[in-house]
Amino acid sequence: MDKVVATALEAVADVPEGASLAVGGFGLSGVPNVLIQALYERGVGSLSVVSNNCGAMESGLAVLLAAGRIVRVTGSYIGANKEFARQYLAGELEVELIPQGTLAERLRAGGAGIPAFFTPAGVGTQVADGGLPWRYDGNGGVALASPPKEVREFDGTEYVLERGIRTDFALVRAAKGDRHGNLVFNKSSRNFNPLAAMAGKVTIAEVEELVEPGEIEPDAVHLPGIFVQRVIALTPEQAADKKIERRTVSAPAEGTVA
After folding, report:
1. What does each C-alpha distance from 138 to 86, 143, 214 come to in angstroms?
2. In the chain, helix, strand, coil percent, each to 5?
3. Rounded to an integer, what distance in angstroms lies between the CA atom of residue 70 and that of residue 84?
4. How many CA atoms lie within 13 A of 91 on its CB side?
5. Which of 37, 40, 97, 193 falls between 20 and 30 A from 121, CA-CA?
6. Nearest CA among 65, 31, 79 for reference residue 242
């Protein structure tokens, strides 16, 4: 039952070339940076990644992306990642962009053993009709486009069929975890981390605070240990290393003494 692994390198030692990964995080929040760095140090490549976004500010998945280790991304947000956009338009990267809520439900469905589901999101668009550019040819043309999906009507409303997602591995970050793999996430890091963890056949969690079994109240557990196979405890320095994507400072109120 003790799922704690000594180091991040040991935790990802069996992730092979060409593996598929579900990776938690939302923007810069809750990103498993230590595990991603361990994959980078191992030199693993040709990875297919499922994640809301593909890193930012040269952190998170951007580390693997910049090194040319990722060949396919399933996600919902490119954002300000210029290298992501460059690789996509140059035909170096295959990208499946899908609605954010659909991505979340596809991960959850895969983890719950649900092969597919119907949703109204995307009906009447290329999400359902097909034709979204998955890969460009580098000259402005489309080398590979998304196929059309099944659309059915229920009670007078059309819905598109979406497949659940399962991946070989999942990498997630939690605020707290115990040796049995029960996890607690902090605020917005709870958006995609539990779902990514459910989707992975082997899920590896880095935790900012490792506690003993029983120290987390059962009602406080966000993700039960049944979904987690390995846990690594971060050092205080690693746990505190959290970047801010955009810092906004208010002007001091009039009359305030600096």
Report:
1. 10, 9, 54
2. 25, 30, 45
3. 10
4. 9
5. 193
6. 31
Instruction: Give the whole-angstrom CA distance, residue 51 versus residue 33.
Output: 13
pLDDT in tens, 155-203: 999 999 999 999 999 999 999 999 999 999 999 999 999 999 999 999 9
Alpha carbon distance 37, 154 (integer Å): 46
- The number of residues in the chain equals 258
Q: Considering only CA atoms, which of 191, 13, 15, 168 is closest in space to residue 100?
A: 191
Considering only CA atoms, which of 138, 164, 137, 177 is closest in space to residue 5? Answer: 177
Identify whether the C-beta of residue 99 lies closer than 8 Å to the C-beta of residue 128. no
Burial of 76 (0-12, 13-18, 19+ CB in 10 A): middle
**In the predicted model, is pLDDT for residue 212 greater than 60?**
yes
Q: Dihedral sign for Cα 55, 61, 63, 66, please.
A: negative
Q: What percent of the chain has pLDDT over 70?
A: 98
The CA distance from 146 to 130, in Å, is 5
As a whole number of Å, the end-to-end CA separation of the chain is 54
**Torsions phi, psi for 123 (to 5 deg):** -65, 135
Question: Do the beta carbons of residue 215 and residue 178 sit within 8 Å?
Answer: yes
Q: What are phi and psi of 177, to 5 degrees?
A: -155, 155
Tokens 């029983």 correspond to what residue? Answer: 214
Q: Contact, 197 vs 37, CB < 8 A? A: no
Mean pLDDT value across residues 235-240: 90
**Alpha carbon distances (Å) from 187 to 26, 163, 174, 237:** 11, 28, 10, 21
